Amino acid sequence: MERRAFLAGMSMSLCTAGAARAESFAAFLVQLRSRALAAGIPARVVHSTTAGLKPNQEVLKRDQHQAEFTLTWADYSSRVLNATRIANGHAKAGTVRNLLAAVTSRFGVSAEPLIGIWGIETGYGTFQGKFHVIDALATLGWERQSKFFAGQVIDAMRIVARGDAPAGRLLGSYAGAMGQPQFMPSVYLSTAVSFSGASAPDIWHSDADSLASMANYLAKAGWQTGLPSSEPALAPGGIAPDETGRELVRTLGYWQERGVQRLPGAVPLPASTPAALLLPDGPGGQAFLIYANFSAIRSYNPSDFYALAVGALGRMVLSA
Fold it and tell me: DSSP character for 169?
């Protein structure tokens, strides 16, 4: 998924195609190299990673022709929580069961969100993207005249410079999101970890490093041990939509007094637990109780649908 780049890119204004091409790509590279050298990137890395770069036409095509549509939760969940993804999750979880236990123990993050993020982002590491990240980011930095994407190129150079990975290993989406967790280069630098501690984090080939890095991300985002992110619930028809939403936090006891019912098998929680009620498709659709960890997942992708799907996929995969 292309989430990781556009999570940060959402706050930036985008220039028109004509304005983006006012500066030639060659001139853009001159400025980029100068900025990288000033940031302390060794000259040999700056020149080796940018030599021969040209605008990537496939990146331009994808960036300029992004689909615009609005999905309901019912539509989104039917696409994301499909039978193939769930079945593949069952199979993958079986092979990494001991690793999951070790990662969750070390970082205090439950296995459900790790499986959910892993499955939605890259199909448990299967579909990571095949774009050379420096190439893709430089193209976007030039096309959009974006300091953010240019900065990500420099962070990718920094990964190469410190010996974590050669430039050729930095593969990901057309928007620059790398590896199994789909981290932008800046997120890799701040958050990726080697599970064994014996080498640099390898989020492309190592399940251990990928899961540990995702767990570290959620832990840094404030994940609370023992608390779910969300759970399906039954909500009475008398609750008005303006009484719901992730920002309208009450307590679990408050919602239960209003007639909201938790489903069998829900994690025992005290009535004082802060909770909000989410009706993603409005009255008559599915209802969810959401908790503080919902915000930790939204820091990975600021979408209620995404956060709900992460929790749901993790439950579906690990419940059997």
Answer: G
Residues 84, 314: Cα–Cα separation, whole Å: 14
> pLDDT tens digits for 213-235?
999 999 999 999 999 999 999 99
- Verify that 8 and 145 share a domain, yes or no: yes
DSSP H helical ranges for the chain: 3-9, 17-20, 25-38, 43-50, 57-64, 73-80, 83-95, 97-107, 111-122, 133-144, 147-161, 185-191, 207-220, 252-257, 292-300, 304-318
Residue 221 in any domain: the answer is no
* Residues 146, 43 share a domain: yes
Between 288 and 8, the more confident residue is 288
Residue 115 lies in a domain: no
Give burial (CB, 10 Å; 0-12/13-18/19+) of 43: exposed
Number of Cα atoms under 13 Å in the Cβ half of residue 63: 27
Q: Assess if residue 298 is contained within a domain.
A: no
Predicted pLDDT at 18: 44
Separation between Cα atoms, residue 262 and residue 316, nearest integer Å:
17
**Predicted confidence band of residue 238 (pLDDT cuts 50, 70, 90):** confident
Q: Which of 152, 129, 110 is nearest to 297 (CA)?
A: 110
Measured distance CA(169)–CA(160) in Å, rounded: 9
Q: Are residues 55 and 134 in the same domain?
A: yes
Residue of 248, 51, 44, 74 whose CA lies nearest to 134: 51
Cα torsion 203, 207, 210, 212: sign:
negative
Range of the domain at 276: 230-290
Does 109 fall in a domain? no
Residues 135 and 280 in one domain: no
